[in-house]
Amino acid sequence: MDRRTEMIDVVNMLFSLAMKIQNDYIKNSEFPELSMNEMHVIEAASKEQFPTMGNVAKRLKITVGSLTTSVKSICRKGFLTKEKSSIDQRMTFLRITDKGYRALEVHNEFHRQLNHVYSSRIPDDQVDWVYSTLGIIYNDLLDYQKSVKEHKD
Q1: Residue 88, pLDDT score
Q2: How far apart are the C-alpha atoms of 82 and 84, rounded to whole Å?
Q3: Among candidates 27, 14, 44, which has minimal Cα distance to 114?
Q4: Confidence label for 153 from pLDDT (cuts 50, 70 and 90)
Q5: Among 63, 80, 89, 97, which one is least packed by beta carbons within 10 Å?
Q6: Alpha helices in 48-126, H assignment, sequence order
Q7: What is the pTM of this model?
Q8: 26 near 42, Cβ under 8 Å?
Q9: Residue 1 reports pLDDT greater than 80
Q10: Residues 133-142: contacts with CB under 8 Å, at least 24 apart
């Protein structure tokens, strides 16, 4: 196996390991009833100025139907509430509860710790190069995603 192939394997292993650690972190927190996907729904709602079902689904790049399934469970667990718009009854806003904000803080703490692990291993003189390279790879993946979707249609 050549060095580039090994590097891609390491990147894939890093991503998989980070996701597993994140799942373990949630399960070992005071909120083990939350799945990682549910936590990301709460996070997405927190980042929206107008956290409607449509806006949150768009942020997560999922359908409103898929979001509805997750939101029902998250609401039942007490992390979110749904609120109909007083202006347009077709719009439903997601409101994070106090319990949801506490869970979000646990999630944010995990990301702070993960960011420290990542950033502590990248020398200062290489940060710009790593940032630029990852940005290029990200954009290439978006292009690849489009081509995969076009090929499907």
Answers
A1: 87
A2: 7
A3: 14
A4: low
A5: 89
A6: 53-60, 64-76, 98-120
A7: 0.85
A8: no
A9: no
A10: none
